[in-house]
Every structure is written in C-alpha cells, then in structure tokens.
Amino acid sequence: GGKDILTIGCLAHAYANVGDGQKALETVQRALAMVTASQTIAHRNLEHEREGINTLIRTGHLPSDFNSDR
Fold first, then answer.
1. What's the start-to-end Cα distance of the chain, in Å?
2. What is d(CA 43, CA 58) in angstroms, rounded to the nearest whole number?
3. 2-19, pLDDT tens digit by residue?
4. pLDDT of residue 68
5. C-beta of residue 49 within 8 angstroms of C-beta of residue 67
6. CA 27 to chain centre
7. Please, are residues 5 and 39 in contact by the beta-carbon 8 Å criterion?
C-alpha cells in the first residue's frame, strides 16, 4: 500500500542525491506504477521527483528545489 510507495519513493530520492540518475528513475517509476487513482498527492510528489531525476540525467545536477519539502 501507501507505506511501500513512500519507502520506494524515498529510495529513489536517495539514489538521486548520490548521483545515480538511472537507478533513481527506475525506482521512482516503480513507485509510480504502484500509485492508485485515489493517491493524488503521492502521484504529484512522485511526478515532481521524476522531473528532478530527469534533470539530473540530462544535466548532471539536481534542480535546486529537489530536496525541499514536498
């Protein structure tokens, strides 16, 4: 359920913070696949995280707001 999504999302965030964009992207996509239609906040947060990870992959840097509270 939701707890698993949160854990996987945190893992994706950690991968991104150590610069492993590919692993972060795979992990956040796994979390997004678990989100149900009623979990709109989780979906929005994970989409934001995926955008930041894609920026990391493209530029080598996370966006400045990546580690701000969601």
1. 20
2. 22
3. 579 999 999 999 999 999
4. 83
5. no
6. 7
7. yes
Residues 6 or more apart from 11 whose CB is under 8 A from it? 27
Closest CA to 26 of 18, 37, 15: 15
- The verdict on pTM exceeding 0.85 is yes
Place of tokens 């996509």: 29
pLDDT tens, position by position, 48-65: 999 999 999 999 999 999
Nearest Cα to 32, choosing from 16, 20, 44, 21?
44
CA 15/CA 56 separation, integer angstroms: 11
